[in-house]
Amino acid sequence: MFSKRISRRKLLDFFATHPSCTVALEACGGAHHWARQLSQLGHEVRLIPPAYVKPFVKRQKNDAIDAEAICEAAQRPSMRFVAVKSEQQQAAGLVFRTRDLLVRQRTQLINEVRGHLTEYGWIAPKGPSHVARLADLIEEEEMVSSLPEAAHAMFRLMLDLLAGLNGRIADLDKEIARRAREDEVSRRLMTIPGVGPISATAIAALAPPAETFAKGRDFAAWLGLTPLQRSTGGKQKLGATSKMGERTLRRLLIIGSSAVVQQASKRGAPKGSWLEQMLTRKPRMLVTVALANKMARIVWALLVKQENYRAPVAARA
Fold it and tell me: What is the dihedral of CA 207, 210, 213, 215, to 10 degrees?
Protein backbone atom coordinates (compact mmCIF):
# COMPACT_ATOMS: atom_id res chain seq x y z
CA MET A 1 0.00 0.00 0.00
CA PHE A 2 2.92 2.31 0.64
CA SER A 3 6.70 2.28 0.78
CA LYS A 4 8.36 4.43 3.40
CA ARG A 5 11.78 4.49 4.98
CA ILE A 6 11.75 4.73 8.78
CA SER A 7 14.80 5.14 11.02
CA ARG A 8 15.33 2.92 14.04
CA ARG A 9 14.57 5.73 16.48
CA LYS A 10 11.20 6.49 14.90
CA LEU A 11 10.09 2.89 14.36
CA LEU A 12 8.15 2.43 17.60
CA ASP A 13 6.57 5.88 17.29
CA PHE A 14 5.35 4.93 13.81
CA PHE A 15 3.77 1.66 14.95
CA ALA A 16 2.30 3.26 18.07
CA THR A 17 0.09 5.45 15.86
CA HIS A 18 -0.55 2.77 13.22
CA PRO A 19 -3.65 0.54 13.41
CA SER A 20 -3.03 -3.04 14.55
CA CYS A 21 -1.55 -5.11 11.74
CA THR A 22 0.74 -8.04 10.99
CA VAL A 23 4.44 -7.14 11.16
CA ALA A 24 6.88 -9.50 9.42
CA LEU A 25 10.57 -9.48 10.31
CA GLU A 26 13.57 -11.56 9.44
CA ALA A 27 14.55 -13.65 12.47
CA CYS A 28 17.82 -12.58 14.07
CA GLY A 29 19.15 -11.68 17.51
CA GLY A 30 17.56 -8.24 17.62
CA ALA A 31 14.31 -9.37 15.98
CA HIS A 32 13.04 -10.91 19.22
CA HIS A 33 13.44 -7.58 21.04
CA TRP A 34 11.52 -5.71 18.34
CA ALA A 35 8.88 -8.45 18.28
CA ARG A 36 8.24 -8.05 22.00
CA GLN A 37 8.04 -4.26 21.67
CA LEU A 38 5.64 -4.43 18.73
CA SER A 39 3.47 -7.05 20.43
CA GLN A 40 3.00 -4.70 23.38
CA LEU A 41 1.65 -2.13 20.92
CA GLY A 42 -1.03 -4.59 19.81
CA HIS A 43 0.51 -5.84 16.57
CA GLU A 44 0.85 -9.46 15.43
CA VAL A 45 4.53 -10.20 14.79
CA ARG A 46 5.82 -12.97 12.54
CA LEU A 47 9.51 -13.83 12.43
CA ILE A 48 10.73 -15.57 9.28
CA PRO A 49 14.07 -17.43 8.99
CA PRO A 50 16.37 -15.59 6.53
CA ALA A 51 16.79 -18.77 4.48
CA TYR A 52 13.06 -18.73 3.73
CA VAL A 53 13.15 -15.08 2.68
CA LYS A 54 16.08 -15.45 0.29
CA PRO A 55 14.10 -17.21 -2.53
CA PHE A 56 11.81 -14.17 -2.78
CA VAL A 57 14.68 -11.70 -3.34
CA LYS A 58 14.60 -10.86 -7.05
CA ARG A 59 17.91 -9.31 -8.08
CA GLN A 60 20.63 -7.37 -6.34
CA LYS A 61 20.18 -6.51 -2.67
CA ASN A 62 19.17 -3.42 -0.75
CA ASP A 63 16.79 -2.59 2.09
CA ALA A 64 13.79 -1.98 -0.14
CA ILE A 65 14.23 -5.26 -2.04
CA ASP A 66 14.71 -7.16 1.24
CA ALA A 67 11.56 -5.59 2.70
CA GLU A 68 9.58 -6.56 -0.40
CA ALA A 69 10.87 -10.14 -0.16
CA ILE A 70 9.89 -10.35 3.53
CA CYS A 71 6.43 -9.04 2.70
CA GLU A 72 6.03 -11.60 -0.06
CA ALA A 73 7.30 -14.49 2.09
CA ALA A 74 4.99 -13.61 4.99
CA GLN A 75 1.93 -14.05 2.74
CA ARG A 76 2.77 -17.60 1.66
CA PRO A 77 0.25 -20.05 3.20
CA SER A 78 2.90 -22.70 3.90
CA MET A 79 5.50 -20.33 5.38
CA ARG A 80 7.13 -21.34 8.68
CA PHE A 81 7.65 -18.80 11.40
CA VAL A 82 9.96 -18.55 14.41
CA ALA A 83 8.48 -18.39 17.90
CA VAL A 84 9.25 -15.11 19.68
CA LYS A 85 11.56 -15.61 22.66
CA SER A 86 11.00 -13.93 26.00
CA GLU A 87 13.74 -12.08 27.84
CA GLN A 88 14.01 -14.98 30.31
CA GLN A 89 14.52 -17.49 27.48
CA GLN A 90 17.24 -15.35 25.92
CA ALA A 91 18.91 -14.93 29.32
CA ALA A 92 18.88 -18.70 29.87
CA GLY A 93 20.36 -19.24 26.42
CA LEU A 94 23.08 -16.71 27.19
CA VAL A 95 24.41 -19.05 29.89
CA PHE A 96 25.24 -21.68 27.26
CA ARG A 97 26.60 -19.16 24.77
CA THR A 98 28.92 -17.81 27.47
CA ARG A 99 30.06 -21.30 28.45
CA ASP A 100 30.76 -22.18 24.80
CA LEU A 101 32.80 -18.99 24.44
CA LEU A 102 34.89 -19.81 27.52
CA VAL A 103 35.42 -23.40 26.38
CA ARG A 104 36.64 -22.18 22.97
CA GLN A 105 39.00 -19.73 24.65
CA ARG A 106 40.31 -22.51 26.90
CA THR A 107 40.95 -24.74 23.89
CA GLN A 108 42.71 -21.87 22.14
CA LEU A 109 44.99 -21.27 25.12
CA ILE A 110 45.84 -24.95 25.47
CA ASN A 111 46.75 -25.16 21.78
CA GLU A 112 48.84 -22.00 22.07
CA VAL A 113 50.83 -23.43 24.99
CA ARG A 114 51.33 -26.77 23.24
CA GLY A 115 52.32 -25.11 19.98
CA HIS A 116 54.87 -22.76 21.54
CA LEU A 117 56.35 -25.56 23.67
CA THR A 118 56.90 -27.52 20.45
CA GLU A 119 59.08 -24.67 19.20
CA TYR A 120 61.45 -25.44 22.07
CA GLY A 121 61.36 -29.21 21.56
CA TRP A 122 58.86 -30.04 24.33
CA ILE A 123 55.89 -32.18 23.24
CA ALA A 124 52.73 -32.41 25.35
CA PRO A 125 49.62 -34.58 24.76
CA LYS A 126 46.42 -33.07 23.44
CA GLY A 127 43.37 -32.26 25.53
CA PRO A 128 42.45 -30.27 28.65
CA SER A 129 43.11 -33.29 30.87
CA HIS A 130 46.86 -32.79 30.35
CA VAL A 131 46.91 -29.14 31.42
CA ALA A 132 48.33 -30.03 34.84
CA ARG A 133 51.18 -31.84 33.08
CA LEU A 134 51.84 -28.72 31.02
CA ALA A 135 52.05 -26.59 34.16
CA ASP A 136 54.43 -29.06 35.85
CA LEU A 137 56.53 -29.24 32.69
CA ILE A 138 56.95 -25.47 32.55
CA GLU A 139 57.96 -25.30 36.22
CA GLU A 140 60.58 -28.06 35.98
CA GLU A 141 64.12 -26.87 36.65
CA GLU A 142 65.36 -28.20 33.31
CA MET A 143 62.63 -26.28 31.46
CA VAL A 144 63.26 -23.07 33.41
CA SER A 145 66.97 -23.18 32.62
CA SER A 146 66.47 -24.00 28.93
CA LEU A 147 63.75 -21.42 28.21
CA PRO A 148 64.45 -17.72 27.70
CA GLU A 149 63.16 -15.64 30.60
CA ALA A 150 60.66 -13.80 28.40
CA ALA A 151 59.23 -17.08 27.06
CA HIS A 152 58.86 -18.55 30.56
CA ALA A 153 56.97 -15.44 31.71
CA MET A 154 54.56 -15.72 28.79
CA PHE A 155 53.92 -19.39 29.49
CA ARG A 156 53.13 -18.53 33.11
CA LEU A 157 50.75 -15.80 31.94
CA MET A 158 48.86 -18.18 29.64
CA LEU A 159 48.60 -20.83 32.35
CA ASP A 160 47.22 -18.24 34.80
CA LEU A 161 44.59 -17.25 32.22
CA LEU A 162 43.81 -20.93 31.72
CA ALA A 163 43.28 -21.45 35.44
CA GLY A 164 40.89 -18.48 35.51
CA LEU A 165 38.89 -19.88 32.59
CA ASN A 166 38.65 -23.29 34.27
CA GLY A 167 37.25 -21.65 37.38
CA ARG A 168 34.63 -19.69 35.45
CA ILE A 169 33.59 -22.76 33.42
CA ALA A 170 33.21 -24.73 36.66
CA ASP A 171 31.00 -21.96 38.08
CA LEU A 172 28.80 -22.02 34.97
CA ASP A 173 28.54 -25.81 35.18
CA LYS A 174 27.29 -25.48 38.77
CA GLU A 175 24.76 -22.84 37.70
CA ILE A 176 23.50 -25.06 34.87
CA ALA A 177 23.23 -28.05 37.23
CA ARG A 178 21.24 -25.91 39.69
CA ARG A 179 18.84 -24.81 36.96
CA ALA A 180 18.41 -28.43 35.85
CA ARG A 181 17.47 -29.53 39.39
CA GLU A 182 14.94 -26.74 39.81
CA ASP A 183 13.25 -26.97 36.40
CA GLU A 184 10.60 -29.68 35.97
CA VAL A 185 11.10 -29.94 32.18
CA SER A 186 14.86 -30.39 32.59
CA ARG A 187 14.37 -33.11 35.20
CA ARG A 188 12.04 -34.92 32.83
CA LEU A 189 14.51 -34.70 29.95
CA MET A 190 17.36 -36.02 32.10
CA THR A 191 15.56 -39.36 32.36
CA ILE A 192 16.62 -39.97 28.73
CA PRO A 193 19.93 -41.89 28.47
CA GLY A 194 22.61 -39.52 27.16
CA VAL A 195 20.85 -36.31 28.23
CA GLY A 196 22.56 -34.60 31.17
CA PRO A 197 22.03 -31.29 32.95
CA ILE A 198 23.70 -29.22 30.22
CA SER A 199 21.71 -30.81 27.37
CA ALA A 200 18.43 -30.74 29.30
CA THR A 201 18.61 -27.08 30.29
CA ALA A 202 19.86 -26.13 26.81
CA ILE A 203 16.84 -27.80 25.20
CA ALA A 204 14.49 -26.07 27.64
CA ALA A 205 16.11 -22.67 26.93
CA LEU A 206 16.89 -22.78 23.21
CA ALA A 207 14.26 -25.03 21.62
CA PRO A 208 10.92 -23.54 20.52
CA PRO A 209 7.68 -24.93 22.00
CA ALA A 210 7.27 -28.60 21.14
CA GLU A 211 3.77 -27.90 19.83
CA THR A 212 5.42 -25.94 17.00
CA PHE A 213 6.34 -29.27 15.37
CA ALA A 214 3.74 -31.72 14.09
CA LYS A 215 5.88 -34.77 14.85
CA GLY A 216 9.25 -35.83 16.23
CA ARG A 217 10.87 -36.01 12.82
CA ASP A 218 10.16 -32.32 12.27
CA PHE A 219 11.99 -31.52 15.51
CA ALA A 220 14.93 -33.71 14.46
CA ALA A 221 14.99 -31.97 11.07
CA TRP A 222 15.00 -28.57 12.82
CA LEU A 223 18.11 -29.73 14.70
CA GLY A 224 19.78 -30.83 11.45
CA LEU A 225 19.90 -34.53 12.35
CA THR A 226 17.99 -35.83 9.32
CA PRO A 227 19.53 -36.71 5.91
CA LEU A 228 19.48 -34.30 3.01
CA GLN A 229 16.79 -34.99 0.42
CA ARG A 230 18.05 -35.36 -3.15
CA SER A 231 14.99 -37.21 -4.44
CA THR A 232 13.65 -36.80 -7.95
CA GLY A 233 11.48 -38.66 -10.45
CA GLY A 234 9.74 -40.65 -7.73
CA LYS A 235 13.05 -42.10 -6.52
CA GLN A 236 14.13 -41.39 -2.96
CA LYS A 237 17.76 -40.36 -2.65
CA LEU A 238 19.05 -39.43 0.79
CA GLY A 239 22.36 -37.67 1.34
CA ALA A 240 24.48 -36.86 4.38
CA THR A 241 23.14 -35.32 7.58
CA SER A 242 21.82 -31.86 6.80
CA LYS A 243 23.48 -30.06 9.77
CA MET A 244 20.89 -27.31 9.41
CA GLY A 245 19.23 -25.60 12.34
CA GLU A 246 20.27 -25.19 15.96
CA ARG A 247 23.92 -26.28 16.08
CA THR A 248 24.29 -26.03 19.87
CA LEU A 249 21.54 -28.56 20.60
CA ARG A 250 22.68 -30.79 17.74
CA ARG A 251 26.21 -30.89 19.14
CA LEU A 252 25.00 -31.65 22.67
CA LEU A 253 22.76 -34.50 21.49
CA ILE A 254 25.58 -36.01 19.42
CA ILE A 255 27.95 -35.79 22.40
CA GLY A 256 25.35 -37.48 24.59
CA SER A 257 24.67 -40.22 22.04
CA SER A 258 28.41 -40.85 21.59
CA ALA A 259 28.67 -41.47 25.35
CA VAL A 260 25.81 -43.99 25.16
CA VAL A 261 27.38 -45.72 22.14
CA GLN A 262 30.80 -45.82 23.81
CA GLN A 263 29.32 -47.40 26.94
CA ALA A 264 27.39 -49.91 24.83
CA SER A 265 30.55 -50.81 22.91
CA LYS A 266 32.42 -51.56 26.16
CA ARG A 267 29.71 -53.15 28.30
CA GLY A 268 27.34 -54.30 25.60
CA ALA A 269 23.94 -52.96 24.61
CA PRO A 270 20.72 -54.50 25.99
CA LYS A 271 19.97 -57.81 24.31
CA GLY A 272 17.70 -57.42 21.29
CA SER A 273 17.65 -53.62 21.51
CA TRP A 274 17.73 -51.25 18.55
CA LEU A 275 21.19 -50.08 19.58
CA GLU A 276 22.60 -53.62 19.62
CA GLN A 277 21.25 -54.34 16.15
CA MET A 278 22.65 -51.07 14.77
CA LEU A 279 26.11 -51.64 16.26
CA THR A 280 26.35 -55.04 14.61
CA ARG A 281 25.47 -53.69 11.16
CA LYS A 282 26.63 -50.08 10.93
CA PRO A 283 29.81 -48.04 11.59
CA ARG A 284 30.08 -46.53 15.06
CA MET A 285 29.87 -42.88 13.97
CA LEU A 286 26.80 -43.55 11.85
CA VAL A 287 25.15 -45.21 14.86
CA THR A 288 26.04 -42.18 17.00
CA VAL A 289 24.27 -39.75 14.66
CA ALA A 290 21.32 -42.11 14.22
CA LEU A 291 20.98 -42.37 18.00
CA ALA A 292 21.10 -38.56 18.30
CA ASN A 293 18.23 -38.43 15.78
CA LYS A 294 16.32 -40.97 17.85
CA MET A 295 17.02 -38.98 21.03
CA ALA A 296 15.65 -35.82 19.39
CA ARG A 297 12.38 -37.60 18.61
CA ILE A 298 12.18 -38.91 22.17
CA VAL A 299 12.77 -35.38 23.48
CA TRP A 300 9.88 -34.09 21.39
CA ALA A 301 7.58 -36.88 22.61
CA LEU A 302 8.44 -36.22 26.25
CA LEU A 303 7.85 -32.49 25.86
CA VAL A 304 4.50 -32.97 24.14
CA LYS A 305 3.17 -35.74 26.42
CA GLN A 306 4.83 -34.33 29.58
CA GLU A 307 6.00 -37.76 30.67
CA ASN A 308 9.24 -39.31 31.87
CA TYR A 309 11.29 -41.60 29.67
CA ARG A 310 10.46 -45.30 29.82
CA ALA A 311 13.09 -47.67 28.41
CA PRO A 312 11.65 -50.00 25.74
CA VAL A 313 11.45 -53.66 26.68
CA ALA A 314 13.01 -56.07 24.19
CA ALA A 315 10.54 -58.53 22.71
CA ARG A 316 11.02 -62.13 23.74
CA ALA A 317 11.70 -64.66 21.03
Answer: 120
